[in-house]
Design brief:
heterodimer, A: 149 residues, alpha+beta, OB fold (Dihydrolipoamide Acetyltransferase, E2P), 3-stranded antiparallel beta sheet, 3 helices, 26% helix, globular, B: 243 residues, alpha/beta, 2 domains, 6-stranded parallel beta sheet, 5-stranded parallel beta sheet, 28% strand
């Protein structure tokens, strides 16, 4: 496989293109590895008490708006961000899916989804934190979960 | 609490007196033992409901009473489903109309009862307009829905949770209490889960009726700040999970 770098002044950010005659499992694997590698570098800027923290997006379980702030939940901590939820929804990698009017979830971290009458309770790995998904957003969440696994 | 014991005590003694007197035919009206006991209990619920302004309690105790005395009242044709249906519709309707007052009343009475003397700094409670961004106070109202709240106050003093026919989970593992805190929990036909740090010294003083309180999770060490849980649990479940 050939690897080369092309320069293009019209682009605003680097773009990776894999050119292949047929889509083989190896190509698919390469694509996911690259995507994962790139996501690893992404962080969001948030606050924990008085300190500014760069939280790796992979550590985030979910983001929730509460009291006019957006809180990013990791397994052990809660970080306050000064961004709006819709801005974060656009800037975060595509493993982050909106699950209700007030929450975005990292689908890689989901452990279970339990259905109750009107809502879906989402739980996460290695923590007792939970969040509700509303019925309106459940379908997109489900399709994403199926695609990701 | 004391007042309540008096109420129920007198009530049951009166009930015993009525039961014996009817069986001994001292009173003119005679009825079955079950009917008498049921009427006594229903009357008690009815009075309690009026005092606490619980509309479903008033309506349903009246409905069951009317079912007990369907024959003398001549409404045997309506028993039981029509009466129950009517009671359900009535209680929904009346609750919708009167519930703002009822909530308001409950809120106010609570604070006058428990808070005024306990916390002099909280004079804003009397005005019924709690400050929204006061980090020492957390308010949560859930009605016919489910909700999860993560609290991260650095100086939590008061938590007010009003839950009616719903489920709520409050995570307090990132909250800090400097001295002591009070939690006013009013849960009616619902469930409340509190995730608390294991070192909090939790004192449960809730007024419980047909409800269950469960404590689970890690062992509670009771070495930290004191947390008093008070309020009313009605046909509800309270679970405290120490983390």
């Amino acid at each position: 496989m050939k690897v080369r770098v092309e320069k293009d002044a019209s682009l605003t950010e680097p773009e990776l293109i894999i050119r292949t005659p047929t889509e083989t499992p190896m190509i698919e694997q390469l694509k996911t590895t690259l995507e994962k590698q790139l996501q690893h570098q992404q962080t969001i800027t948030a606050w924990l008490k008085e300190s500014q923290v760069y939280v790796p997006v992979d550590d985030i379980l979910f983001l929730e708006s509460a009291d006019r702030h957006v809180i990013a939940h990791t397994i052990d901590d809660m970080y306050t961000t000064h961004d709006h939820l819709y801005e974060l929804e656009q800037s975060l990698p595509k493993q982050f899916i909106r699950i209700s009017k007030s929450a975005i979830v990292n689908v890689y971290q989901i452990r279970s989804i339990t259905r109750s009458i009107s809502t879906y309770l989402v739980t996460f790995q290695k923590t007792n934190k939970q969040v509700y998904a509303s019925r309106r957003y459940y379908k997109t969440l489900k399709t994403h979960l199926e695609k990701m696994r | 609490m004391k007042q309540q014991r008096w109420f129920w005590g007198i009530f049951f003694i009166l009930g015993a007196a009525i039961l014996v007197s009817t069986k001994m035919h001292w009173l003119t009206y005679t009825a079955g033992t079950f009917t008498i006991i049921a009427s006594i209990v229903l009357l008690a619920i009815f009075i309690k409901s009026i005092l606490s302004l619980t509309i479903p309690g008033i309506v349903f105790s009246a409905a069951f009473a009317s079912m007990l005395y369907a024959q003398p009242l001549g409404i045997t044709a309506l028993v039981p489903w029509t009466v129950l249906g009517t009671a359900l519709l009535l209680s929904i309707g009346l609750s919708l109309i009167f519930s703002p007052y009822s909530w308001h009343h409950r809120f106010k009475s609570h604070h006058n009862m428990y808070h005024h003397h306990a916390n002099r700094n909280h004079s804003q409670w009397q005005t019924d307009t709690p400050q929204k961004n006061d980090p020492t106070t957390v308010n949560m109202t859930v009605s016919m829905s489910n909700s999860i709240r993560y609290v991260q106050s650095e100086d939590l003093r008061v938590l007010n949770a009003d839950i009616y026919m719903g489920g709520a989970k409050i995570y307090l593992d990132k909250a800090q209490i400097k001295d002591q805190a009070t939690m006013n929990l009013n849960v009616e036909l619902g469930g409340l889960e509190l995730y608390m740090p294991r070192d909090w010294n939790v004192k449960i003083q809730d007024d419980v009726f047909l409800s269950g309180i469960e404590e689970k999770g890690l062992a509670n060490t009771k070495t930290g700040p004191t947390v008093t849980l008070q309020g009313r649990l009605r046909m509800s479940g309270l679970t405290i999970i120490y983390v």
